[in-house]
From TrEMBL:
It comes from Phyllobacterium brassicacearum. This is glutathione-specific gamma-glutamylcyclotransferase. PANTHER family: CATION TRANSPORT PROTEIN CHAC-RELATED, GLUTATHIONE-SPECIFIC GAMMA-GLUTAMYLCYCLOTRANSFERASE 2. GO terms for biological process: glutathione catabolic process. InterPro entries: ChaC (IPR006840), GGCT-like (IPR013024), GGCT-like_sf (IPR036568). It comes from the Bacteria. Pfam families: ChaC.
Length: 247
């Protein structure tokens, strides 16, 4: 049940101040990418360890998979993954950052809890669906955002679902950063696909549309808005978004 409409400090106008036209810097020297054989191995491994073979396969979405799904789904419901939380703990030197000004991406990290969306995947061609999904979620070795079966609580009980959790052994793991540090990064970093501020805005607005409010993300979006204002030296524009009234 959603509460009263809330004013979102971070707006498209503020996000536009962070955006810059940046060329793709490409793969950094020494970085090894997953190949088709690697992805096939991941798919076989995850399907082999499916907790409930023959039952519907569920995917837990907590961020961009909510506003930019990679694969089709036949049903959805809200669920809570306990023992995991949203965290901007994944350092990016490409896509939404550059080697000169790295960005931060959100991942599921250990501790706390995370309210997200459970998607029920079509039963046909699970291998193909996973292959497409894995190619989107992780590219470098070792995998930064690893597929893993996690337990998600729903109104009808606890059920297993596929989630993508942060690999703390990855050299891209940034650790547990304060919201102030994260806000400073997101207020500046931009790569060839867009900015971290844009990613945050998309995530918060689409979570809200699903009836999900993450207190840390709400505080973070306000901090990012303040940082953008401070760095650009322009007063906050009067286009603050009101949520719970449609997107």
């Amino acid at each position: 049940m959603q509460g009263r409409p809330r004013s979102l400090s971070l707006t498209p106008a503020l996000v536009a101040r962070v955006h810059r036209a940046i060329e793709d810097s490409g793969i950094e020297p020494g970085v090894e990418l997953h190949n088709d054989a690697d992805y096939d191995d991941w798919v076989k491994r995850i399907i082999k360890t499916h907790p409930t073979p023959g039952s519907p396969t569920l995917l837990f979405a907590y961020g961009s998979l909510i506003w930019k799904p990679e694969i089709e789904h036949v049903d959805e419901q809200i669920g809570v993954a306990r023992g995991w939380h949203r965290s901007f703990c994944f350092r990016m030197t490409r896509f939404r950052g550059t080697p000169e000004q790295p960005g931060l991406m959100m991942a599921l990290d250990r501790g706390g809890q995370c309210r997200g969306i459970l998607y029920e995947l079509p039963k046909n061609d699970l291998e193909g669906q996973f292959g497409k999904l894995f190619r989107r979620e992780f590219k470098y070795k070792p995998a930064n955002s690893m597929p893993r079966w996690i337990t998600v609580e729903t109104t009808s009980g606890s059920i297993p679902a596929l989630g993508f959790v942060m690999n703390r052994a990855s050299p891209l793991y940034a650790g547990n950063l304060s919201l102030e540090v994260v806000a400073d990064v997101l207020a500046q970093a931009c790569g060839h696909v867009g900015s971290g501020a844009e990613y945050l805005l998309n995530t918060v607005t689409h979570l809200e549309a699903k009836g999900i409010r993450d207190r840390n993300l709400w505080r973070l979006q306000a901090l990012v808005a303040q940082q953008i204002d401070r760095k650009s030296g322009i007063a906050n524009p009067p286009d603050r978004q009101i949520l719970n009234e449609g997107l």
